[in-house]
Write a structure and sequence with these properties.
single chain; 125 residues
Length: 125
């Protein structure tokens, strides 16, 4: 099925938003593709507006990029969950969520170790 001009404009604009958000979070195209279980060439085609982004991909894509689905698709009047810049912790969490699952597990193990050690240290004081 051919894509209409209106659809092309929509998908090009959404692709531009995806690319901008990805870059804001310092996520590479390859990392985002891995997180979404698609090829890098498919991710590039989504960002260029050359392919339609599957509806089923919108929630995980929005979650990874730290926006609502409404914001991702450019819905006018979409309300942000929080005003102002993201906290440093939130930016780190967004970047961690974009990592491959094996690296996410490693980061979680390190965090668990630090938190456990911190809890023990505070309890001893």
């Amino acid at each position: 099925m051919a894509i209409s001009q209106d659809e092309r404009v929509f998908f090009v604009a959404m692709g531009e938003r995806i690319a901008a958000l990805r870059k804001t979070h310092a996520i590479t195209q390859a990392q985002l593709a891995t997180t979404l279980a698609v090829s890098q060439s498919a991710m590039n085609a989504y960002e260029q507006g050359q392919r339609r982004v599957p509806v089923s991909m919108l929630p995980p894509l929005a979650r990874t990029l730290g926006v609502s689905v409404e914001e991702l698709i450019g819905e006018a009047g979409a309300v942000s969950r929080k005003r102002g810049p993201a906290s440093a912790l939130q930016r780190h969490m967004d970047r961690i969520s974009a990592l491959p699952k094996t690296q996410q597990k490693f980061v979680m193990q390190v965090l668990d170790s630090v938190i456990s050690a911190s809890g023990t240290t505070q309890a001893q004081r």
